[in-house]
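Narrative progress, year one. The postdoctoral researcher (J.K.) led the effort to move from monomer predictions toward full complexes, under supervision of the PI. The following entry was the first complex the group processed end to end, covering 305 residues in total.
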Amino acid sequence: MKSLEELKAIREKMQGQVGLRKEDETTTRVVVGMATCGIASGARPVLNAFVEGVAAKGLNDKVVVTQTGCIGLCQYEPIVEIMEPGKEKVTYIKMTPEKAVEVIDKHLVRGQIVAEYTFK
Amino acid sequence: MMTELSLNVLDVAENSVKAKATLIEISVCSDTVKDLMTIVIKDNGCGMDEEQLKRVCDPFYTTRTTRKVGLGVSFFKLAAESAGGEFEITSEKGVGTTVTATFVISSIDRMPLGDMTSTMHSLITLNTDTDFVYRYRVDEREFVLDTRELREILEGVPFNVPDVSDYIREYLSENKKETDGDIIL
């Protein structure tokens, strides 16, 4: 069985780091709908893809991946909203883990909205 | 309709989070001799009054305002009952709610348990202020993850930091494998 010992080493490593700063007004929020409608449509793998992708691209300092409940557009789930400070909210619909990778690369890294996946 | 029991667990446990629970206990216990899987989700959230409890399994009842249906609990109940199992929900206002579902493991209509590791990982890393006790048991073998122990060791380092998040996923996945020998439940 895996023990909790390794966690102590992680704590030592993390404690001195700046990466632990709290969310503020410069943070981009990626919000995944995780109500019944979202979960049934496949929101969990989409959320995992965002969490992993954001970490892999080293975006954890400026992007926070979080969840919300039902926003009332159940037929378009999985829905992902990206809120960048000072910009209009972008709503991506019918998301998949593959589309998530593309959105991270184009939208979060390069700042280009992937229009074909957005809600019109 | 959900495709895995683990998705039902994620959905129902989210209700506990919304009920402002500070501790959510989730257990998945399989007894291959009795051919029975029992899933319990217990929280110390706000609980429900009698009227709410009476209507909680009615798919056309919800306390939400964004839509007119509340399917999460109904789906879970249906999943248990169609797999020859039983479903029970008890609740007390101000004390908390407990959902218990049983499933006949060999029932052809039982949904696969699915990826419980992802469900627990998502719950823990997305609700960093809530504590979880997760118990996974198959016959005589079991493992428990108690986030209160993690919190104590981490001294303020949050669960959603990539290193910690990865560690939690590995912990869940490796210990699950040792508990069930990688059988598909």
